[in-house]
User: Which sequence fits this backbone?
């Protein structure tokens, strides 16, 4: 009972803190939008003052006043010209025209005011750009995002000024950014002042908590174990704009660590640079049924064959914008793998006893790959988008000239499109297709748990669960754990429940439904025996429902699928 | 219960409490947003009939708070856009709309505010000496033509629902901004794990909003 209660509590919290979906909100004329600026989480709380009474209306001066209106005021008496002794010393009468001292000043002055019908524009010669308010962030980091430079002619209506402000806010380094101008040293000249208010830049990228069904190192199945993980970044390391991040995932006898550096503008160029180190102490579970493992101690029938392996290595990469919505990344990865495998193992696939392929070399091996990733993103919001597309195309190559023991090539594409519905809800269509050619290690193969919502996803390449796919359609999907060909189509429907501007930005109820397929060359060449007709096709259904909550510390998804996944369907016990 | 399991349970409960409770507390602190124009905070306006045309005078000087007052002198333009919707009591669809927008930019070298007021009556440019003058020109509606009597139903109370936006951001700019914050720089992950980061930066989308500041209010009713 205790276990069940605890499992339920953990389950509610766990359910894949992965990202995802949408929000929808009809345009409202009244309500729903913030009025005062929101205090940041790291800002001191604003004192609560009683609201000031609204200003009285000016009296009407023409026509017949309606009852309840104040009477017209007498015609205004002409006022004397304002003097220097005005209330606000900064706002005084126009300065006396000064005589330009040089031709350059005269030219600057002559082009300072631009008159067009219904519009007066001002232009200045830019004397320089000044950064204020930065205590940690280096000025040169701020200036990277400012496209103006000394000597430019600055039009106060230039849209680039607004863009600059938003670009700086978009870095996540600052709580507020304001631009202003002040007089330069000569008439017609001005200095652009960029005032910033810094904020805490430690970011929680991901949190994982969940329950899985795994196995002991000797292959005995266990009902439930907990797993968890955290991915955190400091996005403005020592004010340099460089990201230092770390991630850790932990489960019973499994550990994954990541450390990464990322410079969004490497040495002032438009190239991003990334370096990552990784360490995984992992185990994985093999054997559909009746696993027989050649154990040094004894040949015994076990529930599962367990492959234990360690990975250590890293990657370096660069990235570049291909426009405002598209980015390209190139990475080189090198790893050493030490695997401890059973000398031999077999299981029942279909009705036949077959040897188990662990998809990893025993002892030490190397892997090195070149990877290209292109991301196209037009979502209107990161976590609860209502419209737009997110598409990621990945290709990876691992060939012998690169010093690898695993020659393979991998191509995959994932695309999502969000549709706002006229009644305020959101529909998301998602598609995935991937293919691997060659001898890819198991952690690079497509894993069935990454496609069904009813099993835990891999976290930092760690696999926590031994179970086969639920198999609602009674197909050969239960014979497939890792595949080299995968596809999935998913539909998600989202209903906005709450929108706010403080700790919780939005809560959406979601329900999703999908169909996926996973197979490999062996299954294509030699389908498992005992299946006929449609059941030979390794496909299955997946679904999920729950809440997506966007908060000021990140987005969270609470789904029921992971819990439902513990209810035996067809594959368990077959 | 084994100690590690107890610890895991405690951690989960703490996480849930940490997420949910502050949000709930703050949600209670926040004043509820009005769902209809009639529920907006009320303020006094002066109405008059200019022959058959309803005109109104009201002030929204409080839309310009201290930081915005300071911003008026930044040398960069400030836009104050006011929309006054004529609403029939008991209905949610406006029957008429009056608008007035004002652009203010401080001339650093002439030390005057260059003000451009655009309304139904046309466009007028004028230099203004101080902030008080700017507020008078840009944060007050004086004898603003609202609607002809023929648009108003005789004997039915009408009121103005007013929305004032300071430096409204264009839809194109908002879209571009949201696109930037949707894409975490340097993320090479093909999965959707960027969501938490995106949410963090998404804070700015919300704190920027669609304008620097928005003020909404309604006036008392007037019966044609």
Assistant:
């Amino acid at each position: 009972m205790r276990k069940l209660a605890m499992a339920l509590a953990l389950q509610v919290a766990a359910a894949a803190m992965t990202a995802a979906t949408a929000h929808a909100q009809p345009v409202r004329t009244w309500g729903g939008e913030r009025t005062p600026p929101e205090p940041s989480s790291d800002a001191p709380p604003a004192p609560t003052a009683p609201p000031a009474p609204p200003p009285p209306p000016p009296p009407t001066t023409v026509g017949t006043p309606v009852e309840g209106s104040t009477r017209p005021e007498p015609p205004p008496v002409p006022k004397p010209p304002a003097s220097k002794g005005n209330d606000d010393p900064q706002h005084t009468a126009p300065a006396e025209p000064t005589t330009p001292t040089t031709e350059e000043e005269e030219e600057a002055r002559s082009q300072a005011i631009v008159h067009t019908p219904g519009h007066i524009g001002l232009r200045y010669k830019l004397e320089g750009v000044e950064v204020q308010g930065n205590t940690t962030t280096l000025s040169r980091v701020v200036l990277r995002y400012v496209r103006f430079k000394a000597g430019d002619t600055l039009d106060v209506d230039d849209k680039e000024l607004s863009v600059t402000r938003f670009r700086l806010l978009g870095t996540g380094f600052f709580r507020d950014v304001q631009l202003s101008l002040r007089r330069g040293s000569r008439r017609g000249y001005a200095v652009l002042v960029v005032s910033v208010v810094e904020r805490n830049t430690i970011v929680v990228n991901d949190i994982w908590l969940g329950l899985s069904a795994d196995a002991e190192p000797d292959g005995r199945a266990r009902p439930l174990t907990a797993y968890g993980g955290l991915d955190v970044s400091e996005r403005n390391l020592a004010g340099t704009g460089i990201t230092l991040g770390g991630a850790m995932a932990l489960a019973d006898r499994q550990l994954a660590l990541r450390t990464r550096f990322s410079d969004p503008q490497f040495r002032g160029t438009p190239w991003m640079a990334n370096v990552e180190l990784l360490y995984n102490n992992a185990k994985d579970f093999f054997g559909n049924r009746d696993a027989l493992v050649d154990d040094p101690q004894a040949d015994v029938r076990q529930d599962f064959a367990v492959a234990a392996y360690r990975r250590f290595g890293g990657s370096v990469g660069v990235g570049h914008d291909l426009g405002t919505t598209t980015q390209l990344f190139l990475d080189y990865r090198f790893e050493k793998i030490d695997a401890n495998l059973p000398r031999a193992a077999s299981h029942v696939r279909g009705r036949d006893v077959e040897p188990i392929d662990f998809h990893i070399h025993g002892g030490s091996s190397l892997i090195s790959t070149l990877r290209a990733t292109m991301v196209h993103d037009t979502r209107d919001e990161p976590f609860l988008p209502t419209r737009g597309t997110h598409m990621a195309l990945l290709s990876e190559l691992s060939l012998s000239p690169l010093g690898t023991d695993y020659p393979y090539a991998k191509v995959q594409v994932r695309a999502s499109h969000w549709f706002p519905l006229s009644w305020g809800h959101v529909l998301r269509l998602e598609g995935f297709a991937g293919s691997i050619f060659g001898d890819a290690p198991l952690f690079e193969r497509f894993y069935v748990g990454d496609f069904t919502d009813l099993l835990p996803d891999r976290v930092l390449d760690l696999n926590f669960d031994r179970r086969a796919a639920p198999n609602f359609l009674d197909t050969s999907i239960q014979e497939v754990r890792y595949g080299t060909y995968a596809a999935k189509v998913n539909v998600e429907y989202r209903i906005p429940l709450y929108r706010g501007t403080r700790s919780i930005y939005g809560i959406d109820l979601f329900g999703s439904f999908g169909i996926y397929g996973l197979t490999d060359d062996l299954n294509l060449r030699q389908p498992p025996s005992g299946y006929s007709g449609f059941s030979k096709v390794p496909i299955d259904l997946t679904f999920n429902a729950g809440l997506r909550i966007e908060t000021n510390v990140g987005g969270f998804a609470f789904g029921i699928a992971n819990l439902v996944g513990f209810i035996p369907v067809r594959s368990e016990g077959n | 219960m084994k100690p590690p399991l107890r610890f895991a349970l405690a951690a989960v409960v703490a996480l849930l409490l940490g997420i949910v409770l502050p949000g709930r507390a703050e949600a209670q602190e926040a004043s509820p947003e009005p769902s209809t124009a009639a529920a907006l905070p009320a303020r006094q306006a002066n109405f008059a009939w200019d022959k058959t045309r309803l005109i109104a005078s009201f002030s929204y000087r409080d839309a310009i708070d201290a930081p915005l007052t300071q911003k008026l002198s930044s040398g960069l333009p400030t836009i104050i856009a006011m929309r006054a919707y004529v609403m029939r009591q008991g209905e949610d669809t406006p029957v008429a709309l009056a608008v007035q927008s004002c652009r203010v930019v401080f001339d650093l070298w002439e030390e005057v505010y260059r003000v451009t007021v655009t309304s139904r009556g046309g466009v007028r440019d004028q230099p203004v000496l101080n902030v008080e003058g700017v507020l008078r020109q840009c944060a007050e509606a004086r004898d603003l033509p609202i609607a002809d009597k023929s648009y108003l139903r005789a004997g039915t109370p009408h009121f103005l629902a007013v929305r004032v936006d300071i430096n409204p951001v264009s839809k194109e700019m908002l879209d571009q901004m949201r696109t930037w914050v949707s894409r975490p720089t340097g993320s090479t992950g093909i999965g959707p794990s960027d969501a938490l980061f995106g949410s963090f930066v998404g804070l700015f989308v919300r704190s920027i909003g669609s304008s620097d500041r928005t003020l909404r209010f309604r006036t008392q009713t007037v019966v044609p």
